[in-house]
Design a protein that fits this description.
Layout (H helix, E strand, L loop, with lengths): L2 E3 L10 H5 L5 E3 L4 E3 L19 E3 L9 H12 L15 H5 L14
Antiparallel strand pairs: 1-4, 2-3
């Protein structure tokens, strides 16, 4: 089992979760974080650090976000050179974005 980052993270990118990860499993994208399922040791440390409740064990991801399980795996591979393991400033309007729904179409997969 690995942990999965879901939709609430899009356009927020709080990094408290990545800073507590003992194995550097987090990868950073342009406007989203993901967890590499091959690196994740299922320690649960990141879950309580996420202020938008975006992180779930892969077997507890809400049905509406189950597609994020596969997406995390794909993005972790694409972003393998973008390890994030320290706290950074969140986006200036992260609190506003945290409340928005249906943000998948805003996810940026490539660093342009």
């Amino acid at each position: 089992m690995a942990y999965v980052v879901t939709e609430p993270c899009i356009n927020c990118k709080y990094t408290n979760c990545a800073a507590v990860c003992p194995v550097d499993a987090f990868r950073e994208g342009p406007n989203f974080l993901t967890i590499d399922p091959l690196e994740c040791i299922d320690c649960d440390a990141c879950v309580s650090e996420c202020p938008v409740e975006a992180i779930y064990p892969d077997d507890e991801v809400p049905e509406e976000w189950e597609h994020y399980i596969e997406l995390n795996e794909k993005l972790a591979e694409n972003w393998e050179d973008h390890i994030i393991n320290e706290t950074q400033d969140e986006y200036p309007d992260a609190d506003e974005w945290a409340e928005k729904k249906d943000k998948l179409d805003l996810l940026k997969e490539n660093w342009d």
